[in-house]
Amino acid sequence: MTATLFAVQVLNGLQLGVLLFLVAAGLTLVFGVMDFINLAHGVQYMLGAYLAVTFYGLTGNFFATVILAMAAALVLGLVLEVLVFRHFYDRDHLDQVLATFGVILFLNEGVRIVWGSAPLSYPAPEILQGAIPVMDGFGYPVYRIALIVAGLICAVGLWLVVARTKVGMLIRAGAANPAMLSALGVNVRQLFMVVFGFGAMLAGFAGVMAGPIFSVEPGMGDGVLILAFVVIVIGGIGSIRGAFLAALIVGLVDTLGRSFMTDIFKLFLEPSAANQVGPAIASMLIYVLMAGVLFFRPTGLFPAPGRA
User: Fold this and answer.
1) 66 vs 43, 54, 92, 125, 180, CA distance in Å?
2) pTM of the complete model
3) Which of 50, 56, 95, 142 has the least CB density, counted as fewest CB within 10 Å?
């Protein structure tokens, strides 16, 4: 293990954490405010990437692609909310899981029909290509740095909206006691729609930003969804601050574990045994972390008010 390799993996972990936050932020708001289990949140991340493929093909401009894909993701999220999800708000969680799982199957097959099964991609903008010197002889891709910065800006903006605006006050009140909020005359259904659309747009933004790094393919949101659920459980359901810190922790633990766990086991095991045990333990690290957090803090690190 060298300092350069460690620095690369730390930055990779931060980049993964930022992507997870963008997905988990919307998911934790939907879950925390609406008490709605949306397994289809991962396919909204996938749709963001596929929409970016289409809009980049039409415009050839990355920044125009980001704006158009986010707007389209917002519209598609609202359409799904009106046509499907709002009919399950008053149903139990099992019905919500089954309904949203059906949406996953439908949309995964839908993108295969529209865009095909072959992996797609689009380039990062020319201004964000190249590398920034971080250490002697080591440069880190500018686009990945820009992704981390964009995620941090989103996190600050989202915190300001939730903590400093009237809409944010209603969202926090909805997460704590939606029945009381409705009794005070707030249109909770309309609030739900705004939260759902905003969450879909954030997931779409994450998909757009991930497109130049990862392959755009059917099912790409499934793995991200699992990690996003781990993030909101560790951070505390309905908590933006918890989702942000938990996303960074999960991103770093997962990336560093997969990079260095085998080398750590080689310190006291035979290389052949370490090569088998290391990857297996690394793949379980975030779930061990989640179990540990839940043992000491069953409602997560920073639960939303009313859920502690």
Assistant:
1) 17, 11, 36, 11, 38
2) 0.88
3) 95
Give 90's contacts (C-beta < 8 A, 6+ positions apart).
Answer: none
Question: pLDDT digit of tens for each residue in the chain (308 aa)?
Answer: 677 788 888 889 999 999 899 888 888 877 777 778 888 888 889 999 999 999 999 998 999 999 999 999 999 989 988 888 888 888 888 888 899 889 999 999 999 999 988 999 888 888 888 888 877 777 888 999 999 899 889 888 888 888 888 887 887 777 667 777 778 777 877 887 888 888 888 889 999 988 888 889 988 888 888 888 899 889 888 788 888 899 999 999 999 988 888 888 888 888 888 888 888 888 889 999 999 999 998 888 887 665 55
Amino acid, single-letter form, for residue 289 = L
Distance (Å, rounded) from C-alpha 172 to C-alpha 20?
22
DSSP H helices, 165-239, are 166-176, 178-183, 188-210, 220-235
Distance CA 244, CA 296 (A): 20
